[in-house]
Amino acid sequence: MEEEVSSGISFSPLVWVSKFQTMAREAYKSKPISHWVLLLLSSLGMLVAFPASSLLSRVYYANGGTSKWIISWVAVAGWPIPALILFPTYLFFNASPSPLNLYLFLSYVFLGFLSAADNLMYAYAYAYLPASTASLLASSSLVFSALFGFLIVKNKLNASMINAIVIITAAMALIALDSDSDRYASVSNSQYIWGFVWDILASALHGLIFALSELIFVKFLGRRSFHVVLEQQVMVSFLAFVFTTIGVIVNKDFQGMVSEAKTFKGGESAYNQVLIWGTITFQLGVLGGTAVLYLASTVMAGVLNAVRVPLTSIAAVILLHDPMSGFKILSLVITFWGFASYIYGTAPGTKLS
């Protein structure tokens, strides 16, 4: 009888909160203050920079921008930013560059090409979809990351993770059923459909890139120190920048930037600011995600990724006056539920199959 009572008490909310507080205090004491400052800044990078980058992409199109290549180029033009952070690690932290053999280089080239294609697909999505809708659809990348991780890297899946895949897929279906409520008047029905398709394809490709990146660590690098993760980011971003720049040149979009800036709502200054801040925020978001993975865990990164989806949608409604129907709100709630299920499934101690 006493065992039953004590068992019941152990699951009471107050005891659970007390245990959580104890765990939090122990975790805080186990790391220096600099660790938590960096983690806070990295988390803010994910929660602020990524949504800002998404909104700026939509601002570009809403105010007269038309080039998909330029927006995809903006996403990788900031590749020197992580490089500026990487090089001091060699100078001041006794880190040594990872040996670059032919197979690793070709892997980076392939990932760079895929990343360039991924950014271009997302550019098409933001050209035709409201930022809130595009952000919700992009959350399906978690589904593809889990599936490709299972197929390529042989990561384990459990019931909670499979449940998350089903839930998020259902949320995407809800958005598809409600397409008429948030389509801009300037966007045709076929363009909206293509925007939807490009967003899902980009999310699938993003999931593939994530799985292949993990495979590179397993096969070629074998370590996950911060500077090694940065090396991969710099190389992939630089090569994606090269591929995208070639596309911009072939499409003659650099020449078109001059006339586009003149007709842009707000003038050339506003045009330049959108592109510059788009470049900075995207790279800061990626850097934040990289740092969170290193400083905390994939679960923490998943939590922040789950939080930034509603943040982006809410910010788009407030700042860009995106339409927010009941279906989209329901989809947002279901997506958050799916993220929670996935995070629970990846938490330590959860049984994997």
From TrEMBL:
Residue ranges annotated as transmembrane are 33-50, 70-93, 105-127, 133-153, 160-177, 197-222, 234-254, 274-296, 327-345
Where is it predominantly found? membrane
Supply the alphabetized keyword list.
Answer: Membrane, Transmembrane, Transmembrane helix, Transport
Organism superkingdom = Eukaryota
Report membrane topology: Multi-pass membrane protein
Which InterPro entries does the protein's record reference? EmrE-like (IPR037185), PUP_plant (IPR030182)
Name of the protein:
Probable purine permease
Taxonomic lineage from the root = Eukaryota, Viridiplantae, Streptophyta, Embryophyta, Tracheophyta
